[in-house]
Amino acid sequence: MEERVTMAMLARRLGIAESTVSRALRGETRISETTRQAVLVAAAELGYRPNPLVSALMSSRKRREGTAEAGTLALVTDYRDSEGWRAKDVCIWEYEGMRARAEETGFRLEEFPMADFCHDGAKLTRTLLARGIRGVLLGFTRDRRELASISLENFSAAGLSTYFREVPLNRANFHGFFNVALAMEEMGNLGGRRIGLVVPELNNRVSGYLWSGAALDWQRRLPENSRCMPFIAEAGDEESGFRTWLKRERPDSLLVYKLPVKSWLSKLGLRVPEDIQVAYLYRTCQEMTDWPGIDGNLKMVGAATVDLVIEGLHTNRLGTPPHPKEVLIKGEWRAKSR
Fold it and tell me: What are the C-alpha distances in Å from 65 to residues 72, 324, 329?
């Protein structure tokens, strides 16, 4: 078996004390930047990987002694700025789930926006290593730019939902197929006979086409005269396309994500719910929560992402996995609240 690289080996290579290596790897400020960088470079060259169980034991002991705070998990984001994603309810729910689970397990969640590192993945990597952070969550992206790749070989990392989807990681996500199928079943129980899915093309694509896949599978099991093809709205042609689709498919119930269908229906003289039922796929604002639809349990999605990172820390599984797995969180149907 390949010999495990130890701090003693690093110390011998650099001609310094093992305690100095340990402090440098933890990012202690009393170690000079020159020495710290030399240790990090040697660790990378030799393939040193810390034992997470020993690190956790040491952190626990120091916390009891009052000399160290709980370990930090890095939430890496790539929004326009560090505040942009906080304007979205979906992101807030996922974040609250991550933060709460991190605290439950003795960690602290800290955001690292890519904008703060000039979108330089190598710079971010050096910072995380210098601070002794080994757990990384990749989440919350928008208007992605080309950036130097983030090296994850020394980290236990997991992806939130489909953010940073170009990085092959273990992920936690909402169960798109199950949630659409559940919503259509519940809408059928409410009397819907021709149930149409109405979602933006971008969001359907981000779901991995699971939304449209579930809708088509549902329609396949209906009598041919009850089938209603989904409306996948192309950007820039949403309202006119919706009108054409509505006239052709004649749905009596709509399962909607984001799009302002109530306003569109009102312009056509159609009332909700008297003339047509509307339910929401992932109710994301107060107006939507007043109507029936799917609660995606997004806090649980965030918590499951933290669980994946901690699992990697405790089993010393670092870097990108050869066969990534995806943990899918099922949603729940919520009836109209008024």
Answer: 18, 39, 38
Beta strands at 332-334 and 293-295: parallel, antiparallel or unpaired: antiparallel
Measured at the CA of 189, the angle between CA 267 and CA 205, to 5 degrees, comes to: 60
The CATH architecture to which 191-291 belongs is 3-Layer(aba) Sandwich (3.40)
- What pTM, to 2 d.p., does this model score? 0.74
Fold for the domain defined by 7-48 = 434 Repressor (Amino-terminal Domain) (1.10.260)
Q: Return residue ranges of the chain for CATH 1.10.260.40.
A: 7-48
* pLDDT tens per residue across all 338 residues of the chain: 456 678 888 888 999 987 788 788 877 777 888 888 898 888 888 888 765 555 554 554 454 444 343 489 999 998 876 667 888 888 899 999 999 998 888 888 999 998 888 888 888 998 998 888 999 999 998 766 655 567 898 899 999 998 888 889 999 999 999 999 999 999 999 999 999 999 999 889 888 899 999 999 999 999 988 899 999 999 888 999 999 999 999 999 999 998 999 999 999 999 999 999 999 997 665 555 678 999 989 999 999 999 999 998 887 888 999 999 999 999 999 987 54
Location of structure tokens 């309202």: 239
